[in-house]
Amino acid sequence: MKQAEEAALDAVDARLGTRLAELRAERGWSLGELAERSGISKSTLSRAERAEISPTASLLNRLCNAYGRTMSQLLSEVEAEPALLLRAAEQPVWQDRASGFVRRSVSPPHAGLRGELVEGRLTVGADLAYDRPPVPGLEQHIWVLEGALDVTAQDVTHHLDTGDCLRLRVWGPTRFRCAGRADVRYVLAVVLP
To answer: Taking the model in full, what pTM does it have?
Structure first.
């Protein structure tokens, strides 16, 4: 079963790399231009587009900012035809193995809608930092289902325990840190401005 999951994740990385290359080509940007816009080295961008690396959440966040889309929008573009109902077993899962972050796209993807639900999981000690939002002014509702989570935005850290919910608009850097002795699982509701 583990080999099948890894093969599925590798297939998502391959489709993601192809989509990243398409987005850059659609804009007529060179690797150098995208590197300047995203703050990511040309070599890393090239390796991500060729699926030689599995992009981290931070790297995808920077690319989403450059392309003006949310991470869920980008990831939904590499999935099959959107549906109205998305069964739990069919919900796309993406993993940032380096940081201990697992992201499940709960909402059926649809390019025309502004809201979406995402399930996030961080392992004990995981600390995930984003230098900017994928879309400035993005509204987020973070509801902790299990464990404890520290969320830092606008230089203020909010500690959330099981059942707590934080609402904020993201304009600058954010940080998500597993704050307990067990993994944390949370729902992230994202609403485009």
So the answer is: 0.67
